[in-house]
């Protein structure tokens, strides 16, 4: 298998794509709920934002087809072609979203689902290209590019975007993000164009092989429990801050700072803890920390005893700090359980399980918050996180890992 001769150039290219994907994710799952709430959309409708992640749930269905097209039996590597068309489709979709009124949530959701399909397809090609093109000794740097790119993209999509909405307009903010997505994808095209042609290939990815493995099925179960416990409150934090009187520009700065500074620091700290302790203690600690923070949010809503500044600190610690800390360990589990012969397919299955649970949890979260209020919702979410601890303690593995972590979002964390 041919390797790219200059790993630094390759890393710059794939980092740009990871940032671009996370910009889209940050706009969709972090910024959009807050913008919709300010536009007067009800919480139960805002909870439906999670449905936009549907292509990220289902991308395992077309991942083998993407890989077979990207690496044909005979011919050159087509990663650049996939990125060109997927990237342009994503940018055009974001431009179209900018024309729509955020209160017109059905049309907006339809456009963003198309964007999510294009971005998730690019993600399949990007991950496969990185693993194929980098020598094994550089794989850790590729994972660092994923982590850094994800948090930087989230800071832009969840922070800068909201700031632009608050200080200018929804349209200008959306069109700025579309231009950024195009620019971030350009370095990868130069890298992909330099890959030597391979004339013949033999391996064909198989979903059936993945699903037959008991270890992978157990990993999917553990992922489902952890994701719903840690992420169920994520989509309601933005609307909660809006209802608490925090303006969109301030929320944008808060999200950007949290993703870029707190999230990155928590990810590095989480990686060090995984290396020292193994994944199980880190997963359990993340659940306990999340339960504690959500309990404080519930108390703040019920008693109104905490000032807004303290609520903002608690919210960002939950949505960026604990989330990054915990998901480093979860993705270390994913890497550990992936079959090296078809790691792309296995890893995609784990990512899709993450997205599927996030969708269901987000929809249910919106319904509960709308009917019962934030106080009961955050109390229930805290109880769920604490109740997941014994299950994770039972199904999670204990092995420690070298400091090599990965992140989606895509979807935000």
What's this entry about, in short?
The chain is mainly α and 413 residues long.
Tell me what the structure shows.
This protein has helices spanning 7-38, 43-46, 54-58, 63-70, 79-99, 105-133, 139-167, 170-193, 207-211, 214-231, 234-243, 248-277, 279-303, 308-337, 343-372, 374-387, 389-395. By secondary structure, the chain is mainly α. α12 runs antiparallel to α13 and α12 (248-277) crosses α14 (308-337). The longest helix is centred in the first third of the chain and has 32 residues, at 7-38. It starts with 6 loop residues before the first helix and ends in an 18-residue tail after the last helix. 55% of the residues are buried.
Can you give keywords for this protein?
413 residues; Growth Hormone, Chain: A; disordered N terminus; 17 helices; single chain
Unreliable runs, pLDDT <50, ≥5 residues? Answer: 1-5, 399-413
Helix content: over 70%
Query: Total domains, how many?
Result: 1
Number of helices: 17
Report the structural category.
mainly alpha
CATH architecture: Up-down Bundle
Query: What is the 3D form?
Result: globular
Strand content: under 5%
Order of helices and strands: HHHHHHHHHHHHHHHHH
Main location: membrane
Transmembrane segments: 46-62, 82-100, 106-126, 147-166, 172-193, 220-242, 248-270, 282-302, 308-332, 371-393
Organism: Neorhizobium turbinariae
Subcellular location: Membrane
């Amino acid at each position: 298998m041919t390797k790219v001769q200059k790993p630094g150039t390759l890393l710059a290219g794939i980092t740009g794509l990871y940032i671009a994907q996370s910009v889209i994710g940050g706009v969709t799952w972090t910024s959009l709920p807050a913008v919709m709430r300010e536009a007067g959309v009800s919480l139960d409708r805002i909870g439906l934002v999670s449905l936009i992640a549907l292509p990220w749930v289902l991308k395992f269905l077309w991942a083998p087809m993407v890989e077979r097209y990207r690496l044909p039996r005979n011919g050159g590597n087509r990663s650049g072609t996939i990125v060109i068309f997927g990237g342009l489709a994503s940018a055009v979709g974001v431009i179209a979203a900018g024309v729509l009124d955020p209160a017109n949530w059905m049309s907006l959701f339809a456009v963003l689902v198309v964007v999510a399909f294009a971005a998730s397809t690019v993600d399949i090609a990007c991950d496969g290209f990185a693993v194929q093109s980098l020598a094994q000794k550089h794989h850790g740097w590729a994972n660092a590019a994923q982590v850094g790119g994800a948090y930087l993209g989230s800071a832009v999509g969840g922070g800068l975007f909201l700031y632009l909405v608050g200080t200018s307009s929804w349209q200008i903010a959306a069109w700025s993000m579309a231009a950024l997505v195009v620019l971030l994808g350009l370095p990868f095209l130069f890298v992909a164009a330099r890959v030597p042609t391979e004339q013949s290939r033999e391996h064909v990815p198989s979903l059936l092989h993945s699903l037959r493995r008991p270890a992978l099925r157990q990993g999917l179960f553990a992922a489902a429990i952890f994701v719903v416990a840690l992420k169920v409150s994520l989509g309601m934090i933005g609307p909660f801050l809006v209802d608490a009187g925090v303006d969109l520009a301030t929320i944008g700065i808060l999200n950007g700072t949290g993703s870029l500074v707190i999230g990155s620091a928590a990810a590095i700290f989480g990686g060090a803890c995984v290396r020292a302790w193994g994944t199980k203690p880190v997963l359990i600690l993340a659940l306990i920390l999340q339960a504690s923070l959500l309990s404080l949010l519930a108390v703040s809503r019920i008693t109104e005893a905490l000032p807004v500044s303290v609520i903002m600190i608690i919210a960002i610690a939950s949505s960026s700090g604990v989330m990054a800390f915990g998901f480093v360990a979860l993705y270390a589990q994913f890497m550990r359980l992936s079959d090296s012969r078809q790691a792309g397919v296995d890893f995609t299955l784990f990512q899709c399980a993450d997205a599927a649970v996030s969708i269901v949890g987000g929809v249910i979260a919106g319904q509960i918050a709308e009917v019962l209020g934030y106080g009961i919702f955050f109390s229930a979410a805290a109880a769920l996180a604490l109740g997941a601890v014994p299950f994770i303690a039972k199904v999670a593995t204990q092995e420690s890992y070298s400091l090599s972590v990965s992140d989606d979002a895509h979807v935000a964390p």
